[in-house]
Structure formats: C-alpha cells, structure tokens
Specification:
It contains six helices and no strands. It has 167 residues and is mainly α. Among the domains are: 49 residues, no CATH class; 34 residues. The radius of gyration is 43 Å and the shape is elongated.
Length: 167
C-alpha cells in the first residue's frame, strides 16, 4: 500500500495537488526539459484558408531583370530561394514577356467571363419600356372609346379632333 504525501502550503497561495510517490510535477518535468535545450516548437495553428499569392507586374519585371543579370552559376537558384519562388514562375513570366503582352503581367480575375453585352442590356430595357407604353396606350384608347359612347348616349357626340377645331 502506497502512502500519499500531503503538503501544507508555506505561503498563502494555491494548494499543491496530492501526488503519489514517483510522480513528478509540471515544474519538475519542465526543469528537466529546459536542460536539454530542445528547439522551440512551431505554432501548430493552421490558417483557416490559404490565400493565393498575387504578384504585381513591376515585381515580375524586377525578378526577371535580376534573373537575366545573374551570371554566376547558382545565382538564379539563390534568387528563387530568397524570394520564395519556383522556376516555373520564371518560365511563365518569360513566356508572357516574350509575347509582348504587358496585360499578361497583371493579375487576372478568376472565374468565368461575363457574357452580358451592354448594348443587349440597353436593348432589353428599351423593349420593356416599349411594352409598358403600348399597354398604357391601349388602356387610354379604351377609356376614350367609352367616353365617346357615353357622350353619344347623352346626346353630345364627340367627333374626331379635326372637326372640333372648326367653327
């Protein structure tokens, strides 16, 4: 049967936890670990969503110029390591530069291209306005026709607009 050691606190503070013989406390364990001088542990937290890197046209041109000026063997590899790039970046950027397309060096929006044409949108808007106005004209003509029939029943016929202006 093992005996439990019970410690009484020497100073007012936290009470120490009871432990069995042979067990070490956190401070005992950390004291041993600090003597071994282990390297610091990396932060295990992972970014929620990775972000795609975007390079400006000026940055791409600057890197290409530095790569073109490299004359010592291994200088391009050192440049790529220093900047965190891959050789495929240089290949793609050189291809774009050879095509002579400055626009290709700028960032491209991702996703499908818009299929809407501004003239088609305006055409649709004008067609809707035309239908609305045609409906209003039809209603106005029905009201005028009813007014003519009511006036004829009351004995005050309304003639065409041309006859009303003559004396």
């Amino acid at each position: 049967m093992k005996k439990l050691k019970i410690h009484t606190p020497a100073s007012p503070g936290l009470l120490p936890a009871e432990r069995r013989e042979g067990e070490r406390s956190e401070t005992d364990r950390s004291a041993v670990g600090s003597r071994l001088s282990s390297p610091p542990q990396p932060n295990p937290e992972v970014v929620a969503r990775a972000q795609r890197r975007r390079f400006t046209a000026d940055y791409k041109q600057n890197i290409l110029e530095q790569a073109d000026r490299a004359s010592v063997p291994g200088a391009i590899g050192a440049l790529l390591r220093r900047e965190g790039l891959f050789s495929s970046h240089l290949t793609a950027w050189r291809r774009e530069r050879q095509a002579g397309v400055r626009q290709a060096l700028t960032a491209h929006p991702r996703g499908p291209k818009s299929t809407r044409h501004p003239l088609a949108q305006e055409n649709q808007k004008l067609q809707r306005d035309n239908q609305r106005l045609a409906e209003q004209l039809r209603k106005a003509e029905m009201i005028i026709d009813i007014q003519k029939k009511v006036a004829a029943l009351l004995g005050h016929p309304i003639g065409p607009p041309d006859q009303e202006t003559q004396p």
